[in-house]
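Example 9 (inverse folding). The structure is encoded as follows.
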C-alpha cells in the first residue's frame, strides 16, 4: 500500500474512468483528488480515445505535471479496447485497475449518499487510485493471450458439459430412479448407448435380459454382459419411476445425450489446441516435467497467471488464485482459518484438481498428502489436504517457471517434510 501511495506525487495527474459499452466518463484530477477540468465524456471509438488523451495532455501542459495515472475497473470486456489503446499509446501513461467492489463501497464516502452515476463513479475511481487502492493491470501478450482465451472457452464449454450431465441424471431420476444404482457414472459411454435404445424400465422389460446383454456387449466392446443386464432387469422390475410423458422424456433424453457429446468434442478440441501451444513452448516442457502436471493444467496455469517474471514471489500468485489464508478473530475468539477465494476462480479450481491428480500420481505429492491427513496434530480433511497439495504444486510450478528449471523430486518437499513422511511410514 505505502509503495503504491508513493507513486503519486504533486507532479501526477490522476484520471478515473468509468467504463461502459458506448460511452465512458473520465474525471481528471490532481494528486489531491481535486477536479482540474469538467467531467469528460469519452466515446468508445478512436475519436473518443484521442479526445481523452488530448485533454489529458493539455492539462499536463497547463499544470506542469509529467506523470499520468489512469485507473479503471477491469471487469467484463468493455474496458479492453480502451486498455490496449492506453497500453500502446506513445505517452506511456500508467494504467492501473480498481476493484469494482471497492468502488461500490467507497462511493458514499464523499457525499454520504447512495446516488450512483457514471460521473460519480469515475471520481471515486480516481480517489481510490490517489489512496493507493489499485493494482497494476496486466494485458497478456503472445502465447499467454492465446492460452488465456482458450482457458476461458474451456471453462465455458465445461459448464455446458456439466449442465448436460446433470440434466440427464435428473431425467433418469424421474423416470428410472434405480438406474444410477447400476452404474458408477450414469453418463459413461456404455450407459449412453443403453439410454439411447432402452432408457426406461418398460423398455428394458420388453427387450428381455438377452437383448439387454447383447446391447451391453456391443456398446462396451465385450467388457459388459449378462451380469450388468441382470442388474438392470432387476432394477426395472422394482422401479417406482414416473410413467406419464415417457415419449417426450425419451426425445429430451436423446437431445441431451447429443448435446453432451457435442460439447465434449468441443472441449477436446480446445484441449488439443492447448497441448499444441504448450508443445511449442520451452516453458511447457519444464512445467510438464513434474509428474501429474499435464498439458491442460500447465496451460491453465500460464493462461491464468501469465508471465511469471512480473511476480516477485509465489505468495503473489497464491493471492491471485484466492488461495491465501484468512481468519476472523476478535478478542478471545479465534476463528477458523480458510482460503480467501478472492482471486481467479478457474485458476483456483485447476490447482485443486492438480492437488487431486498429484496426490494420486506424483510420489512426493502422495507422501505429502498422507502426511497432512495422518499427522497427529491438526490432521486435515481430504478436501483441505487436496487444497494444500494444490498450493504446494503451485509453488513448485512458480519456482520452475521463474527460474527456468525442470522438476527435481529431491527438492520438492524439503528435509523437514521428508522426515515427517518417513516417521509416518
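The amino acid assigned to each position is listed next.
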Amino acid at each position: 500500500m505505502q509503495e503504491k501511495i508513493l507513486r503519486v506525487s504533486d507532479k501526477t495527474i490522476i484520471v478515473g474512468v468509468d467504463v461502459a459499452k458506448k460511452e465512458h466518463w473520465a474525471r481528471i484530477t490532481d494528486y489531491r483528488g481535486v477536479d482540474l477540468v469538467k467531467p469528460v465524456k469519452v466515446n468508445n471509438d478512436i475519436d473518443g480515445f484521442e479526445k481523452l488523451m488530448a485533454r489529458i495532455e493539455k492539462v499536463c501542459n497547463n499544470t506542469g505535471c509529467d506523470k499520468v495515472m489512469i485507473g479503471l475497473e477491469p471487469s467484463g470486456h468493455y474496458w479492453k479496447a480502451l486498455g490496449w489503446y492506453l497500453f500502446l499509446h506513445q505517452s506511456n501513461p500508467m494504467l492501473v485497475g480498481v476493484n469494482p467492489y471497492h468502488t461500490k463501497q467507497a462511493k458514499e464516502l464523499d457525499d454520504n449518499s447512495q446516488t450512483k452515476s457514471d460521473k460519480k463513479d469515475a471520481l471515486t475511481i480516481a480517489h481510490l487510485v490517489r489512496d493507493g487502492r489499485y493494482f497494476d493491470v496486466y494485458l497478456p501478450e503472445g502465447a499467454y493471450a492465446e492460452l488465456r482465451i482458450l482457458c476461458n472457452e474451456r471453462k465455458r464449454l465445461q459448464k455446458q458439459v456439466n449442465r448436460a450431465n446433470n440434466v440427464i441424471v435428473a431425467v433418469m431420476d424421474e423416470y428410472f430412479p434405480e438406474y444410477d444404482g447400476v452404474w458408477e457414472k450414469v453418463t459413461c459411454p456404455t450407459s449412453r448407448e443403453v439410454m439411447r435404445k432402452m432408457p426406461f424400465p418398460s423398455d428394458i422389460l420388453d427387450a428381455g435380459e438377452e437383448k439387454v446383454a447383447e446391447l451391453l456387449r456391443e456398446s462396451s466392446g465385450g467388457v459388459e454382459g449378462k451380469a450388468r443386464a441382470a442388474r438392470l432387469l432387476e432394477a426395472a422390475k422394482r422401479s417406482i419411476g414416473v410413467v406419464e410423458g415417457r415419449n417426450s422424456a425419451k426425445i429430451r433424453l436423446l437431445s441431451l445425450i447429443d448435446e453432451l457429446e457435442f460439447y465434449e468434442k468441443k472441449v477436446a478440441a480446445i484441449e488439443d489446441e492447448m497441448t499444441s501451444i504448450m508443445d511449442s513452448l520451452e516453458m511447457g516442457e519444464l512445467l510438464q516435467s513434474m509428474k501429474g502436471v499435464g498439458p491442460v493444467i500447465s496451460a491453465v496455469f500460464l493462461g491464468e497467471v501469465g508471465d511469471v517474471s512480473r511476480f516477485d514471489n509465489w505468495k503473489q500468485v497464491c493471492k491471485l488464485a484466492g488461495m491465501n489464508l484468512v481468519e476472523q478473530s476478535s478478542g478471545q475468539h479465534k476463528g477458523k482459518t480458510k482460503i480467501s477465494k478472492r482471486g481467479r476462480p478457474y485458476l483456483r479450481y485447476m490447482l485443486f484438481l492438480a492437488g487431486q491428480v498429484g496426490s494420486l500420481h506424483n510420489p512426493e505429492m502422495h507422501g505429502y498428502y498422507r502426511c497432512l491427513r495422518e499427522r497427529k496434530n491438526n490432521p486435515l480433511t481430504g478436501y483441505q489436504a487436496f487444497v494444500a497439495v494444490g498450493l504446494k504444486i503451485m509453488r513448485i510450478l512458480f519456482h520452475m517457471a521463474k527460474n527456468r528449471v525442470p522438476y527435481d523430486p529431491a527438492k520438492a518437499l524439503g528435509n523437514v517434510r521428508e522426515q515427517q513422511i518417513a516417521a509416518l511410514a
